[in-house]
Design brief:
Strand content: 25-35%
CATH topology of the largest domain: Glucose Oxidase, domain 1
CATH class of the largest domain: Alpha Beta
Largest sheet: 8 strands, mixed
Number of strands: 18
CATH architecture of the largest domain: 3-Layer(bba) Sandwich
Number of helices: 9
Oligomer: single chain
Helix content: 25-40%
Length: about 375
C-alpha cells in the first residue's frame, strides 16, 4: 500500500480548518471537526489495500460504489440511478499485447526499431488498426483554434499521414480554449476533417506532470471506452502514439530541425514551424478486448422551491483509479487516495451538508466510473 501523500492530508486539514475558522468560530460550528474526521474516514476506506485501486469494472470498484451509495442514503439523498443509487455502464476494454506489437521508423529503406515502453507507447483510448504504414509530418502543437486565429495545419498536407506534435498549446491561447481543443475528441475532429490517419504526441518535458519512468508502466493496463460505437469520438483514428521526449530527437534527423530547438521555441512562446519528416512510421498493434460493466452512483436532493426545483446543479467526482499495476518500491496497488478518494470524500460530505440546507434548486451528486 502506498500511503496517501502528505500533501493531501496537509491541504485537506488546512481547508477544513479554514472552514472551521478560529476557536470562536469552531465553537459556533462544532460539527466542522466531525466533518473533517468523516472526510478522512471516507478517504481511508476507499484507498485501503482491500479496494485494490478501484479499477473500473472490478469487484473492488463495485464495493466502493456500494459504499458511496450507502453514504448517499445516510445523507438523505433520493436514489437517482437506474437501479436504486447505481447506474450500470457498459464498456469495451482494450489492453495492448506488446509481445505481438512493434513500432519502427523507416528511413531510406532502413527499418529502425523503437523500443516500446522505453521509447514510445501505443495509446489504447482509440481502436487502433492492426497495421499502419504512413509518412509523418510535424505540425507544431497540432491544434486549430479558430477563436484566436491559430492554425498549425495552414499550408500543411496531412492527408493519409501521421501528425507529430508537441503537447500543450501556445501561451497566447486562454486556458479553457487550450483544454478544449487539446481533448482527444476535438483534436481528432480536426485531423479527420483534414484526412490524417493518426497522431504521435511528444510531451514537453517542462510541463510533464509525471516522469516518463512513472507513467510508462501504466501502458499495460486496460483502457476503457463506452461500448456503444455511436459514442466513439475517435472513430477512424488508426494509431495513437506517445513518444518519450528524451528519445524523440531521432524522429527529426534529416529534417533540418531539432526537437531541442522546437521545445525551446515552444517554451519561449514562439510560433512553431510545420514540415514533413523524412521517416515512415510502420506499426503493428495487437489488442486484447473484454466487455466490462461498471457503475456510476447517483443521488439527488430535490429543490425546496417549486418554481426552481426543476433546475438541477450537478456535483461530480470520479470513483475509479487504475487498480493494480507495475510495482513501485515493491508495491503494486495503486491506492488512489489523492486520485480520487479525496474527491469522492468531498462529494459525500458536500451531499450531507447540502441536503441539510434544503437548497431551492435540485442538486444531483454523481460519482462516475471510468473517469
Amino acid at each position: 500500500m502506498r500511503r496517501p501523500h502528505a500533501l493531501l492530508l496537509l491541504t485537506s486539514v488546512t481547508l477544513l480548518a479554514a472552514c472551521a475558522g478560529e476557536p470562536s468560530a469552531r465553537a459556533a460550528n462544532p460539527g466542522a471537526e466531525d466533518a473533517a474526521a468523516r472526510w478522512w474516514t471516507h478517504v481511508e476506506t476507499l484507498a485501503t489495500d482491500e479496494m485494490r485501486g478501484r479499477e473500473t469494472g472490478s469487484p473492488e470498484h463495485r464495493k466502493a460504489a456500494d459504499y458511496v451509495a450507502g453514504q448517499f442514503k445516510l445523507a438523505g439523498l433520493e436514489p437517482a440511478g437506474t437501479s436504486d443509487y447505481l447506474q450500470a455502464v457498459s464498456f469495451r476494454s482494450r489492453r495492448i499485447l506488446e509481445d505481438r506489437s512493434s513500432l519502427n521508423i523507416v528511413v531510406e529503406g532502413r527499418e529502425l526499431p523503437v523500443t516500446l515502453g522505453e521509447e514510445a507507447i501505443f495509446g489504447m483510448r482509440i481502436e487502433p488498426a492492426p497495421r499502419v504504414e504512413a509518412p509523418m509530418v510535424f505540425a507544431g502543437h497540432g491544434l486549430r483554434i479558430p477563436e484566436v486565429g491559430h492554425d498549425d495545419f495552414a499550408g500543411l498536407d496531412v492527408k493519409g499521414k501521421v501528425v507529430v506534435h508537441v503537447s500543450g498549446s501556445p501561451s497566447t491561447v486562454p486556458g479553457a480554449l487550450s483544454a478544449h481543443y487539446q481533448s482527444a475528441a476535438e483534436r481528432w475532429n480536426t485531423l479527420r476533417e483534414l484526412g490524417a490517419i493518426g497522431t504521435l504526441a511528444i510531451p514537453n518535458p517542462t510541463t510533464m506532470d509525471v516522469p516518463w519512468e512513472r507513467s510508462s508502466p501504466n501502458r499495460l493496463n486496460p483502457s476503457m471506452a463506452l461500448s456503444d460505437p455511436s459514442l466513439d469520438q475517435t472513430a477512424g483514428q488508426q494509431v495513437s502514439i506517445t513518444f518519450n521526449p528524451a528519445r524523440a530527437e531521432r524522429l527529426f534527423e534529416g529534417s533540418g530541425h531539432s526537437l531541442a530547438d522546437l521545445l525551446k521555441a515552444a517554451d519561449e512562446g514562439k510560433a512553431l514551424p510545420r514540415f514533413s519528416l523524412p521517416g515512415i512510421l510502420r506499426a503493428t498493434v495487437a489488442v486484447e478486448h473484454q466487455d466490462v460493466e461498471s457503475h456510476n452512483v447517483a443521488g439527488v436532493v430535490r429543490g425546496s422551491d417549486p418554481a426552481l426545483a426543476g433546475e438541477y446543479v450537478v456535483l461530480t467526482a470520479h470513483l475509479d483509479h487504475v487498480g493494480v499495476g507495475a510495482p513501485v518500491n515493491g508495491d503494486s496497488i495503486y491506492n488512489g487516495a489523492m486520485d480520487n478518494a479525496s474527491g469522492i470524500a468531498t462529494l459525500i460530505e458536500s451531499a450531507s451538508a447540502i441536503a441539510a440546507a434544503r437548497p431551492k434548486r435540485s442538486v444531483v451528486f454523481l460519482a462516475v466510473t471510468a473517469e
